[in-house]
Backbone:
C-alpha cells in the first residue's frame, strides 16, 4: 500500500499565506491565534465551534473497570476529562459523499 503524505504545519501556513495574500509570518500568527482561541473557549465553556470543521467538546469520562491485556487481570480505570472533536455534516459529506437512497 502506498504511503499517505500528510500536510505539515509549514505547508499549511504557506497555503494559507498564498490564498489570503499574507506573509508566512502573518499566516502562522493567524493559525496560532485560531488554535489559542479554540483551546481557551473549550477550557472555559466546555465547547468550541470551529466553523466548517466541527466542534470541540470537553467530556467527563466515568471511572470504569478494564482488563490488562498482558496478564488478563481486571484493573480500575479512573475517571478523567477528555476532548472530543465532532465533525460537521458538511465536512463529512465533502470527504465521503453519502450513498444515494435506494428506491
Residues:
Amino acid at each position: 500500500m502506498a504511503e499517505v503524505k500528510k500536510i505539515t504545519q509549514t505547508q499549511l501556513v504557506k497555503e494559507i499565506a498564498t490564498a489570503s495574500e499574507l506573509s508566512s509570518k502573518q499566516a502562522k500568527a493567524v493559525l496560532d491565534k485560531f488554535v489559542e482561541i479554540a483551546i481557551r473557549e473549550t477550557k472555559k465553556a466546555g465547547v468550541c465551534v470551529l466553523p466548517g470543521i466541527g466542534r470541540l467538546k470537553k467530556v467527563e469520562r466515568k471511572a470504569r473497570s478494564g482488563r490488562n491485556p498482558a496478564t488478563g487481570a481486571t484493573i480500575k480505570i479512573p475517571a478523567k476529562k477528555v476532548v472530543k472533536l465532532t465533525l460537521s455534516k458538511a465536512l463529512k459529506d465533502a470527504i465521503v459523499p453519502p450513498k444515494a437512497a435506494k428506491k
In short: The chain has a mean pLDDT of 92. The helical segments are 9-20, 24-45, 89-95.
